[in-house]
Design a protein that fits this description.
3-stranded antiparallel sheet, Glycosyltransferase, 52% helix, 11 helices, single chain, mainly alpha, 11 strands, globular
Length: 302
């Protein structure tokens, strides 16, 4: 990654060939976010200054690109239905914390109010108590397919990021609000017929244009376990404990491959394995170890 991972402008390619040749253009800023996290952790573990520089250069590039992060790779026609997306503000609140030993506490603290405002105000939909994936540039509701889409997993994951920030700020009200949004999203996104958390939903109950809307994904469920463990630890809300057991039982029953090891990533609505591959374009070795580690350390501290 150090040798082949970036283009001339410092943007991280989405993927490379086995020999290190660029395979997919650096269209996805989340490649940069995860590379930044990785090199920051490598710097912390080894003390190597060059890893610190890669992490810092990447972080500055992310901040520079954040308002137009797709750039030339955007499919949207300029000026027509511009939308703000929830994903980047969500990940920035976690990324900044991961880089605190590099960028310093003062700079991390300067990011936090903006991130909290974006996540908890701009993308929050008060009429439903849910958080949207896309809103108009002024934060208003966009009544179209993209504007109505709800990704329960994204919201639930973001809420444990926000709870971590609330703990840092000693803000009990923020923790409580994040916990309540997380529980409401989980209840809204839970499949009442077959169990498990839906991948996508339409906030008005209309049909979703995502073909995979009714699939059950590994990362959604393990991130929910983190959020529920933290919610219980920080608030003592028994609903978090009840939901934790429910999600835990579903997750370990359906996703773990008890014969070959590792976890399946994609189930159909009924909870049956839809794709048996253990790694692919989107499923890497990230969510499972991080989530299991977070759950372990959270429960250990109770």
């Amino acid at each position: 990654m150090e040798k082949f991972g970036r283009d001339a402008e410092g943007n991280w390619y989405f993927s490379l060939t086995a020999e290190g040749k660029p395979l997919v253009q650096p269209y996805n800023i989340f490649s940069d976010c995860f590379a930044c996290m990785g090199f920051a952790a490598l710097n912390r573990a080894t003390g190597e200054e060059r890893y610190k520089k890669i992490a810092l250069d990447t972080f500055e590039n992310i901040i520079r690109r954040k308002d137009n992060w797709k750039g030339i790779y955007s499919k949207a026609y300029p000026g027509t239905r511009p939308l703000k997306n929830f994903s980047l503000p969500m990940i920035l609140c976690n990324l900044a914390l991961e880089l605190e030993h590099i960028i310093g506490t003062e700079r991390v603290n300067s990011f936090i109010p903006t991130v909290i405002h974006e996540v908890m105000d701009v993308f929050y939909h008060p009429e439903t108590g849910l958080i949207l994936e896309n809103v108009n540039p002024d934060g208003s509701f966009a009544d179209c397919f993209e504007g109505r889409v709800l990704n329960p997993g994204h919201v639930i994951e973001a809420m444990w990021f926000i709870m971590d920030l609330g703990k840092r700020l000693n803000d009990a009200a923020l923790i409580e609000k994040a916990k309540d949004i997380m529980l409401h999203t989980l209840d809204y996104g839970w499949d009442k017929k077959y169990d498990g958390i839906f991948y996508f939903l339409d906030i008005k109950g209309h049909p979703s244009q995502q073909l995979e809307w009714d699939q059950k994904l590994w990362w959604v469920h393990v991130e929910a376990l983190v959020a529920l463990a933290k919610g219980y630890k920080l608030t003592g809300d028994e609903k978090c404990a009840e939901w934790f057991i429910k999600v835990h039982d579903y997750t370990w029953k359906h996703f773990k491959d008890t014969e070959q090891g590792e976890w399946f990533g994609y189930l159909n609505q009924r909870g049956e394995v839809l794709l048996s591959l253990k790694g692919g374009k989107w499923k890497g070795c990230f969510h499972i170890p991080r989530s299991l580690y977070q759950v372990w350390k959270t429960l250990e501290s109770l």
